[in-house]
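Deliverable D2.4 — example input (structure tokens):
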């Protein structure tokens, strides 16, 4: 079975409203395209920062700009659709673990995808005023990113770790550290090995300046070595990006010896053979 469980029902721009995108017509379009492309397990995972309830967790100015929708409405909209699993993409905000746990426990998610998009108040993958790279020194940014990723795994808040080496998103567009990158991956690996989290293999990086799957093969090999299962997703924000370039992803999975994918029901995980 092929999966796509890191999926957004709308683009990231604030003008893409819930009213326009959390509709039967839009959800059915996603289901149709997923079926056409052989996706046997489809789930959606809206960004937590789009929901007013997220401001109880964190009040970053970017979240304050975006937190307008109602989380309960999203959960009941998706919850009523048999063919779509209910997920959420939640940031790991160090120091706010209890608050995030409260938000997550209050809803019937099938799974929670954990992301590191911010280091303190600075954004890893967002140009503009919060861009971590406006003064970020690559060795330091990469260290901090992977240390935070390891903490996210260890927090136990998440079923899946999203786009695990997101820090590479800009490719040659930002400074990058030299040499063997495994010295950074190592910083996350204790937390990952001691957790029960699944590792996302995401084709979203192929649509970004870096032009690579997340994570890099050596990182994925380290996670597999540590016994972690894999969740396969596209991070689509439109129906057309569902299962984006999965041939590349399946080739990578085969090369590292992964023959089954994680799927979730009410936060319990099972593995489905890729077949
Ligand atoms: Zn993300
Ligand atoms: Zn996403």
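Example output (designed residues):
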């Amino acid at each position: 079975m092929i999966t796509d469980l890191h999926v957004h029902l709308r683009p990231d721009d604030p003008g893409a409203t819930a009213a326009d995108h959390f509709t039967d017509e839009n959800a059915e379009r996603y289901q149709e395209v997923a079926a056409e492309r052989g996706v046997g397990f489809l789930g959606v995972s809206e960004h937590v920062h789009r929901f007013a309830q997220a401001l109880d967790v964190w009040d970053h100015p970017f979240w304050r700009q975006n937190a307008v929708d109602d989380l309960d409405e999203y959960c009941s909209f998706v919850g009523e659709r048999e063919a779509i699993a209910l997920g959420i993409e939640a940031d790991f905000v160090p120091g706010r673990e209890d608050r995030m746990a409260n938000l997550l426990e209050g809803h019937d998610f099938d799974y929670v995808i954990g992301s590191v998009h911010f280091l303190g108040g600075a954004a890893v993958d967002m140009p503009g005023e919060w861009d971590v790279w406006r003064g970020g020194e690559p060795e330091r940014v990469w260290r901090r990113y992977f240390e935070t990723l390891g903490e996210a795994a260890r927090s136990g808040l998440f079923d899946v770790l999203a786009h695990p080496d997101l820090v590479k998103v800009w490719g040659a567009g930002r400074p990058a550290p030299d040499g063997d990158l495994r010295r950074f991956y190592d910083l996350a690996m204790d937390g990952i090995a001691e957790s029960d989290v699944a590792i996302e293999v995401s084709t979203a990086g192929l649509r970004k300046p870096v032009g690579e799957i997340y994570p890099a093969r050596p990182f994925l090999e380290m996670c597999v070595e540590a016994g972690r299962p894999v969740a396969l997703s596209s991070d689509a924000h439109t129906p057309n990006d569902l299962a984006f370039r999965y041939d590349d992803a399946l080739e990578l999975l085969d090369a590292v010896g992964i023959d089954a994918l994680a799927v979730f029901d009410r936060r319990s995980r099972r593995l489905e053979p890729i077949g």
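Residues 136 and 175 are 9 Å apart (CA to CA).
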